[in-house]
Specification:
With 260 residues, the protein is mainly alpha-helical. It folds into two domains: 2-103, no CATH class; 123-248, no CATH class. The protein is built from eleven helices and two strands. The chain has helices spanning 2-7, 9-26, 39-54, 60-105, 113-126, 166-174, 180-184, 188-197, 203-207, 209-217, 223-229; strands at residues 129-130, 250-251. It has a two-stranded antiparallel ribbon. The protein is elongated. 25% of the residues are buried.
Length: 260
């Protein structure tokens, strides 16, 4: 096997490079779960083939071809795994930076001490809580924090993000997601949770909702948002109330007044 590795070093390096490229492209940036994909099956088959050659059940030219194929597969898988780990680290770093930026941008001016003291009782009585959705604890990942209502009663048009249509916007509203900066601050765990909750895991990463939301939150239009504002996208022409039937209602705490 070592002799083959030295003879085919350049070809093995090429297989490793292809594995790096494919791992970077296909990895979503969420939690790495190699045992949940096809890799265990591939490793098992490779182990069986290796056993056949090492025990000399297969000899001659056939054994040579099998061992060469094993080397190529091992180099390719090593590249895939390394790229996937790197993509996960980069995604985690970007999410931490986005959260820090969102938190800094949302820090309000400190009011005077008497005003804070007077506001606390009213806030405790009037702020309803977001209920858990059905099966929330069984959904992988972590649910993002939400707001009971849009800030200043002015929600962003989430349908300007490619991949968010009429029903998905309504479902996100039901989860307390009203603004671009909320989506921009999602961590990989949040992305995993929302993707499974909306029944299309992996789509948020493929369509890069977080990057789109960061641009829109910064006032930078995307190609899709420009088309949507021009009325060229049929799924972006409603008020976002569709799709809320399978979202849990916001609980009331019995306070007077009407829930926003």
């Amino acid at each position: 096997m070592l002799y083959l590795a030295t003879q085919f070093a350049w070809f093995l390096l090429a297989a490793f490079g292809i594995g790096l490229a494919m791992g970077w492209i296909t990895c979503t940036g969420g939690k790495v779960r190699f045992w949940a994909g096809p890799i265990p099956l591939v490793v098992g088959v490779c182990a069986m083939v290796a056993a056949l050659t090492w025990l000399q059940v297969v000899n001659g030219v056939a054994a040579l071809w099998l061992e060469t194929a094993l080397l190529y597969v091992a180099a390719y898988l090593a590249g895939c795994c390394l790229a996937c780990f790197a993509r996960t680290i980069v995604a985690h770093r970007d999410s931490v930076v986005a959260i820090a930026g969102a938190n800094l941008g949302s820090i309000p001016e400190a009011p005077s001490a008497p005003a804070v003291a007077a506001a606390k009782p009213a806030l405790a009585q009037s702020a309803p809580l977001l209920d858990k959705v059905e099966g929330e604890n069984r959904i992988p990942g972590r649910r993002p924090s939400g707001l009971v209502a849009a800030r200043s009663d002015a929600a962003d048009d989430l349908k300007l993000i490619k991949g968010i249509g009429q029903q998905n916007e309504g479902k996100l509203h039901g989860l307390g997601i009203w603004h671009f900066d909320q989506i921009a601050a999602w961590t990989p765990e949040n992305i995993e949770w929302v993707g499974h909750y909306l029944a299309f895991p992996g789509r948020i990463e493929r369509e890069d909702w977080v990057a789109q939301a960061r641009s829109l939150a910064a006032g930078i239009e995307t190609a899709f948002s420009t088309r949507a504002r021009a009325g060229e996208v049929a799924t972006s022409r409603d008020d976002g109330t569709q799709g809320r039937d399978n979202v849990a209602d916001i609980s009331e705490d019995g306070a007077d007044g009407k829930r926003p």
